[in-house]
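Page 42, continued from yesterday. The earlier attempt failed because a stray header line got pasted into the input along with the sequence. Redoing it now with the clean sequence only.
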Amino acid sequence: MAAGVVERVVQHIASLGHHPALGETSIDDIRAELRAAAPRSAQSLEGVLAPFFDDWVHRSFGTAHPGYLAFIPGGGLFSAALADFISAATNRYTGVQVAAPALVELEATALDWLREWMGFPAEARGWFTTGGSLANFSAIVAAREKLLGEHLRDGVMYASSQVHHCVTKSAQLAGILPDRVRTIGVDESFAMDVEALSVAIDADTAAGLRPFLVVSSAGTTNTGAVDPLVEIGALCRQRSLWHHVDGAYGAFFHMVPELRPLLAGLSDADSVTLDPHKGLFLPYGTGALLVRDGEDLRSAHAATAGYLPPPGDAETYDPSQYGPELSRPFRGLRVWLTVQMYGVERLRAAIAEKRTLTLDIAARLEQIDGLVIDAAPALSLFPFHLHAPGWTPDDDDGATRALVDRVNARGRVMITGCTTAGCYYARICVLSFRTRQEQVDHAVDDIRNAARELLAAVR
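This time it went through. Structure tokens are written below.
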């Protein structure tokens, strides 16, 4: 069975570049097949795998495709697939330390690597999550418990208009209702306006409320903006607020020494969200949270029961004491095995390459007639739109949407857009380990051709 599955998977990976970056996503013709009743008897493995690999998996966004420049790519390193196979096959329980102490220690080691790369102190602690959503939720809970206590209704949280939607969703799940979440405006580069933040904090303080948390972004999803982390951190320390950095997209650029100035201030935050399934190229479902003072995270999540072994002390890493999960998969093996197989320097080089490729593509797009770069790439993501003299903003939006559609229809790369500040922007994010110079060249050519076609139609 293993040989049959691996053969199929390897064939699939080898064929990625031969399929469109954006597959056909209609399933009307196979919906009945997909919704078939459970079989009464066992089916052959090859018979089950054939439609999955030959048809179904290709009806999707090509998230593992080398030309996938949409949303936030990751790519899914094969080492992590091996780790998941090992984890599921050995099926050891890593929810509490005593059940598999060596494996939990291995996971703690992987977290410690993340801590070092982010410049957090030795007393920091964290946990591996399903992604940025749960990491942000857990950080909000930790900040709430430390700074609000029983005064939950008085607490106020602040984030920019560009913050990932999961932050406001997580706030509500953590009991911070929408009327206690302040949206702070941004500057021309789409980064948080610190002066507006300061004014909002002062106004809430004067009104008798309890400002307790600022969530900044180390790379927003819409435009890739990095908030002024140094200034926000200083303001938070001055006003005794918790500073959480949502670095789900961009924090791993801090792993590269020469790129750390782009994320100055990240190491001083109270907590940071990381998504190894983005910046470390791992499969979806690999997130992490780091909290500067590990005891703050532990005190917000610690719990036990009569049927559980006593938790260890604060020096013992016990996953169930640092996050909401008790039953959980062995996520840390994905990170640990990948770093072991490739080494830190190779991973750093791959991350740095994505920044270099992004600067290249942005500089070349800037030379294309009619294309406007709306914000220079802070990391490896940037927005742009199409414009011609005499066009209205609605004309720009329509033409930019058409450009995205035309580029994607060519099949070599996939890009996506976003709507922010009332405008529609195309966006490119270079982050898959499979994306190299060839795909950048394809993107530039396809965008140039689409822009020429759309501009020619109105002249």
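Notes: The CA atoms of residues 25 and 59 lie 5 Å apart.
Reminder to self: strip header lines before submitting.
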